[in-house]
Amino acid sequence: MQHERIDWPNGAKIALSIVVNVEEGSEMTIARGDRGMEPVDELGIHIKSPIRNYGNESNYLYGIKAGAPRVVALLARPDAARTEPAAPETTTVSPAFGSPTSSRPK
Questions:
Q1: Residues 55, 45: contact at Cβ < 8 Å?
Q2: How many distinct structural domains can be found in the chain?
Q3: Does a structural domain hold residue 2?
Q4: Cα 61 to Cα 68: distance, rounded to the nearest angstrom
Q5: What are the pLDDT digits (tens) for 50-90?
Q6: 7 partner at 20 to 30 Å CA-CA among 57, 75, 98, 99?
C-alpha cells in the first residue's frame, strides 16, 4: 500500500479533528412516555421497574442546560469549520441543538 503525501494549507504539520457527539436529551425516560429509563448510567445499574431515575435525568439535563451552550458558543465562531451531527431526539428535546447550523451563515 502506498502512502499518499498530503500537504496541509499554509505548511501546517497537523490537522485536528474534534468530535462532539450530542446525545443529551435523547435518553429513554418515563417522563416522555418511554416504557422504562435509560439502561446506562455511571453505576451500571438498570432498574427494570417503570419509574423515573431523577439522578440520571438531572445529569442529562445538566449537559443540555450548562454544557451545551458553551460548546455551541465555541462552534458558533465564524472561523470554526464544523459538521454538526446530533441524535434526532436531542434536537426535539433541546431545539438549541437543531438551530445553530440553520441560523449561522455558511
A1: no
A2: 1
A3: no
A4: 10
A5: 888 888 788 888 878 888 888 878 878 888 777 667 777 77
A6: 75
